[in-house]
Amino acid sequence: MSNFQYRYDQLLSHYSSPLEAIALLREYRPYFELIPSLRRPSDSLISIPFPVVQLTQPNLTQSNLQLQCDLALIMCDPDWKVKTGQEIFVFIHRPNEDYSALLQRWRQVEVALGEEYYWLLPWKHRSIISDRGEHHYPLFVTLDYSPARITKGLEGASLPHVKASTLEIEPPLEDNQEDPIYDPTE
């Protein structure tokens, strides 16, 4: 695994936690203000990595579709345990992804969400009504490996974006290295 791919995976796994996703939203204040309750943050936001929706066609046929975003952040009212209708779609810049491919992922999500859809929610949140949201917001995340042209393009298109700092976690092991946490002699 390349170092860039490792950083992407690291960030994706980090923001899969609702509390860490809230920290991401803190970097872009207009979206941070969409969170229903900061007193109960883990009940106010559902973070879904590589989300899947069920599309319902006019002829009542259904099909599942994986959205081309990295995370979907769904706002929930912590008291009523219902979605608020505000959905944020996070697009983390992937290694070797160009500006046009990043925007195409966002456009694919917009097209898919134009249909009637229902969320396939994680098991923990199955009791929440999963119908379509009323407001869809994109958030683009760049990393230190992202070319300057990506940030320039996002700024030029007035798209919401943040630059994520690399997390302080050990880099991946080389094939000939042993895991320092696991010691077979203990």
Commentary on this structure:
The protein has 186 residues and is an alpha/beta fold. Helices cover 28% and strands 26% of the residues. It contains 6 helices and 8 strands, in the order ααααβββββαββαβ. It has helices spanning 3-15, 18-26, 29-32, 41-44, 99-112, 148-156, and strands at residues 45-49, 52-56, 62-66, 71-77, 82-92, 116-119, 135-142, 161-163. Strands 1-4-5-7-8 form a 5-stranded mixed β-sheet, with helices on both faces. A 3-stranded antiparallel β-sheet has the order 3-2-6, with no helix packed on it. A hairpin with a 4-residue loop joins strand 4 (71-77) and strand 5 (82-92). The longest helix is centred in the middle third of the chain and has 14 residues, at 99-112.
Considering the chains and any ligands shown, give keywords for the structure.
single chain; 186 residues; alpha/beta; three-stranded antiparallel sheet; 28% helix
Task: State the gist of this model.
The protein has 186 residues and is α/β, with parallel strands linked by helices. The chain is built from 6 helices and 8 strands.
How far apart lie the N and C ends? 29 Å
Largest sheet: 5 strands, mixed
So how many helices? 6
Using only C-alpha atoms, the radius of gyration works out to 18 Å
Secondary structure: elements and pairs:
Layout: H1 3-15, H2 18-26, H3 29-32, H4 41-44, E1 45-49, E2 52-56, E3 62-66, E4 71-77, E5 82-92, H5 99-112, E6 116-119, E7 135-142, H6 148-156, E8 161-163
